[in-house]
Amino acid sequence: MRDFAYWGLRSYDGELHITFEYFGMENPGDIPKEVEIGKTYNVPVTHSGVYWKDGKVMNTGIRVELPEELLPFYKNPAIPHITLSCHPDSVPKNTALCSWKKVDWLHAGSIQMQVFGFSLSAFNMICDKLIDLLKSSDAKPKPDEIQDWIEYICENSTEVSKLKTEFPVEFQSRHLTERLLRELN
User: Fold this and answer.
1) Which CB contacts under 8 angstroms, 24+ apart, belong to 146-153?
2) 62: closest CA among 82, 80, 42, 76?
3) Which of 63, 87, 104, 117 would be 7's cystine partner, CB 3.0–4.6 Å?
4) Under 8 Å CB-to-CB from 19, ≥6 apart: which residues?
5) Is-above-0.85 flag for pTM?
6) In contact, 84 and 141? CB cutoff 8 Å
């Protein structure tokens, strides 16, 4: 059974990431055993890009050069890139549609990134725990308060706090909020 919904490289703060493989791809697999989760790589920035649609900037991003040892595992059909911004009428995957411009080598830099994976079993375990707490709670958060409620639970439940520390990628997922919102309805 496949446990990872997606995996790749991400910055230490979790804000920037490069998706190597994701569940919606044809013939997805798990993270290869040759790839060490948590290993850090220096990822050079090579291009900057903008995706325009109907006269509006929809996405901005940067193209990167993947570490040589990870190239065989990159299964994403898009050129390796990182989304920097996304218009509300767009989606992050549209960053692949950017018009790319080579970055002047004097201004180019690199980003320290770590191998990460989004575990389906960990995500489901977190959701189940939060849903149980949500159902047993007298106070039901409104949809616009769900993120604050998750933070409150993390601060007041040792068990949930440990899960957040152990599975930070899964806790940062917008899917967690979406799943809890479905439970409220």
Assistant:
1) 146/177, 146/180, 146/181, 146/184, 147/177, 150/176, 150/177, 150/180
2) 82
3) 117
4) 6, 7, 8, 76
5) no
6) no
